[in-house]
Design brief:
407 residues; alpha/beta; 5-stranded mixed sheet; two-stranded antiparallel sheet; transposase activity; Mutator family transposase; Transposase_mutator; transposition
Length: 407
């Protein structure tokens, strides 16, 4: 990644402690210097520099406004005599900013917000907005988010699928209603995480999850081997119906909470340690031995908790079948929960979305940027050992099938 040397104006730095708009001016100054550094990289020459490597010449700048939460910035975009200056600064930075600003603007334009929200909108954006401005921004942003959320997935296979839902408040038909947004994260055959898509549903029902999984499969989601989620009945039933032959791993964090809720308080510390040992067992055989010991020791003292443990054991330890290096990241939905927290940070600003389109726009823009970061950044898992393990598993099943046929 390129490193830029930034010089800051003393007057602007001093103004940070006196004027609200100084933050916008500071960011404006920094971004303008980044643009100048980028054009120097592209041309391979500084202004007025003589060098044999020069790729072209500057031809002044054009003003470009960028609407952000700290105010409207005016950036000076470099022009070139022969060719076009390219930068991803606007595209990558503005998607989520536009989506957040648009949600606030729609609240004001649709007349569903308080005067306080209207005031915040003007303070954040530095200007007032009309319906035509909202419409124009939506026309630019919506197709980008829609294309990403409906992209074809056939380029990769996704052995590991992690799914979760979160509840949003959306205004529909004059009333505020709770709606579930379902999100799927996949880990592809190369070990990179991707956000596969999001969908709004009326609730976390089996019908909603079935529609969500069917939609992912219609986009060529394939190769799913393990699905990780909480134990919501509608979700579990949809997983079993839509991904037949796959292993379902119940989130161990959610399971532990459920089990401790059923445990007398005086025993919770001891029981937690014993259950943790089961979940951290080196293999399924050891886990089952530990399970029998815990049930024998606590069945009389905590019968309800032991029933929870017995009923959930197979689903919560499914990950123990995998090579050890994959278990930690696939035994819970904690990664997905952290993603939800990132969404909540922005969603709290809105609190109540003016419509479904606004919710999909903001969440889609945020997830799109996170997906770009994941899929182009560091590899999440080294999949070599997994594919070797799968090859052995298939060969073992093949041999077992031959023996059964001979019998």
């Amino acid at each position: 990644m390129a490193q830029y040397q930034i010089n800051l104006n003393d007057e602007i730095l001093h103004g940070l402690f006196q004027r609200d708009e100084a933050v916008a001016r500071l960011i404006e100054q920094v971004l303008n210097q980044v643009l100048q550094a980028q054009v120097t990289e592209q041309l391979k020459a500084a202004p007025y520099e003589r060098t044999e490597e020069r790729q072209g010449y500057r031809n002044g700048t054009l003003p470009h406004t960028l609407t952000t939460r700290v105010g409207t910035l005016t950036l000076r975009v470099p022009r070139l005599r022969n060719g076009q200056f390219s930068t991803d600064l606007f595209m990558r930075y503005q998607r989520s900013e536009q989506a957040l600003v648009l949600a606030l603007m729609e609240m004001v334009v649709n007349g569903v917000s308080t005067r306080k929200v209207a005031k915040i909108t003007e303070e954040l954006c530095g200007t007032e907005f009309s319906k035509s401005t909202v419409s124009d921004l939506c026309k630019r942003l919506d197709p980008i988010v829609h294309a990403w959320n409906n992209r074809n997935l056939r380029e990769h296979t996704y052995p590991f699928l992690i799914v979760d839902a979160m509840v949003l408040k959306i205004r529909e038909e004059g009333r505020v209603r709770s709606r579930s947004v379902m999100i799927a994260t996949g880990i592809n055959e190369e070990g990179y995480r991707e956000i596969l898509g999001l969908m709004l549903g009326d609730s976390e029902s089996e019908a909603s999850w079935t529609e969500f999984f069917s939609w992912l499969k219609s986009r060529d989601l394939r190769g799913v081997d393990i699905v990780v989620s909480d134990s919501h009945s509608g979700l579990v039933n949809a997983v079993k119906a839509q991904f037949q032959g796959c292993t379902w791993q119940r989130c161990q964090t959610h399971f532990m909470r459920n089990l401790l809720d059923a445990t007398p308080k005086s025993l919770q510390g001891d029981v937690y340690g014993r259950i943790r040992a089961i979940l951290d067992a080196p293999d399924l055989k050891t886990a089952r031995v530990l399970l029998n010991q815990v049930i024998e020791d606590y069945y009389e003292k905590a019968p309800r908790a032991m029933r929870v443990l017995e009923e959930g054991f197979d689903d919560v330890t499914a990950v123990l079948e995998l090579p050890e290096r994959y278990r930690k990241r696939l035994r819970t939905t904690n990664g997905q929960e952290r993603l939800n927290e990132e969404i909540r940070r922005r969603e709290r600003v809105i609190r109540i979305f003016p419509n479904r389109e606004s919710a999909l726009r903001l969440l889609g823009a945020l997830l799109m940027e996170m997906d770009e970061k994941w899929s182009t950044g560091r590899r999440y898992l080294d999949m070599t050992e997994y594919w070797d393990w799968r090859k052995v598993q298939k060969e073992t099943l093949k041999q077992a099938s031959k023996v059964h046929h001979l019998r």
